[in-house]
Amino acid sequence: MESIKMKKSSQVASIFDIAKDTVLFLLLSCYYLLESLFWTLVPNALRPMKSLEGDVVLVTGGGGGVGRQLAVKLARLGAKVVIWDVNEQSLRKTSDTVKDEGYHISSYVVDLADRNAVYETAERVKREVGKVDVLINNAGVVFGETLLELNDTAIETTYKVNILSHYWTVKAFLPDMIKTKKGHIVTVSSVAGLLGTYRCTDYSATKFATVGFHESLYTEIRAHGHSTVHATLVCPYYINTGMFDGVTPRLMPMLEPDYVAETMIDSIRKNEVNCVMPGSVRYLLPLKCLLPAKMCWDLMHRVMKGPQSMMELRKKTQAA
Ligand SMILES: NC(=O)c1ccc[n+]([C@@H]2O[C@H](COP(=O)([O-])OP(=O)(O)OC[C@H]3O[C@@H](n4cnc5c(N)ncnc54)[C@H](O)[C@@H]3O)[C@@H](O)[C@H]2O)c1
């Protein structure tokens, strides 16, 4: 009898606890929604943005389209820019562009598909430049073939560069960010990481993985109380860098790399958790879960002509 009474009172306490937390959550949600609406309406020029002056900012894939734009813009903001790339020539081109403007930049040739090379280069950066404050995992590859045309090495390369390298770089740099109570991990994904894309079974899958990586990492950082270490997920639509050469999207033109880099830096400086470009894409995404699958396919195939435009993607050389 006594134990039944105790069980009942503990059940009542637990229901009371859930009710209390729910009410608190609802009250806080009103505040979060108003806060978000307020900051959406305030122009960037009027809102507090974190300064990156003097910060060590590492950009992977810094030799290429968006990476190069990021390097130049970050240097102009006074950051100590470090770029990594597998392509020595394009790395030099970015370095020269930054140096021509009178800024300093450190560059490292590294193949992100090689885990040991990533760890070794990370140690060199720590020794030669210092603690990395902002890590931008930007490098990416796409082969743009259907599953049956993709060779196994190409699939493995896509996974190694587009997602596995994020584990190695974050493991190398996050501990110091936690120790110094200052850091920011930026994960460059794609709209193809939110919506499966034709000729992208490898690319889309790795970009979906980056979304899961960012969201899980974010929960670990928050749950362990490291509130001064930030994480931003960046999901851009097609960008005019040559990565998707030949593709002409039907409804929206490709984004320019200059705009993408600028928006990404603004997002980092605002400590935003998610950055989808263009913002309008965010309103289309829930349709994927809400509408019947046949309707989604018709929207994609008939109206947007997504697969048809990806059929025009110029062939890339697959790793042997
Ligand atoms: N271009 C687009 O349409 C588009 C759209 C959405 C998201 N993205 C993503 O944005 C990021 C930047 O794309 P981008 O258009 O500037 O690409 P890009 O091809 O112009 O540049 C990518 C850079 O990564 C480097 N890289 C490739 N493999 C590497 C490796 N193994 N080790 C080191 N560096 C390597 C390349 O040499 C290149 O300089 C990528 O993650 C990409 O997936 C691109």
UniProtKB/TrEMBL annotation:
Domain of life of the native organism: Eukaryota
This protein's GO CC annotations: lipid droplet; membrane
Compartmental location: Membrane
Membrane spanning stretches: 21-42
The keyword Transmembrane helix is assigned to this record: yes
Family: Belongs to the short-chain dehydrogenases/reductases (SDR) family.
Protein name, per record: Short-chain dehydrogenase/reductase 3
Pfam families xref list: adh_short
Lineage, highest ranks first: Eukaryota, Metazoa, Ecdysozoa, Arthropoda, Hexapoda
Function, as annotated: Catalyzes the reduction of all-trans-retinal to all-trans-retinol in the presence of NADPH.
Organism of this sequence: Leptidea sinapis
Keyword Oxidoreductase: yes
UniProt keywords, alphabetically: Lipid metabolism, Membrane, NADP, Oxidoreductase, Transmembrane, Transmembrane helix
Gene Ontology MF term list: all-trans-retinol dehydrogenase (NADP+) activity
InterPro entries named in the record: NAD(P)-bd_dom_sf, SDR_fam
SUPFAM superfamilies named among the record's database cross-references: NAD(P)-binding Rossmann-fold domains
UniProt topology in membrane: Multi-pass membrane protein
CDD domains linked: 17beta-HSDXI-like_SDR_c
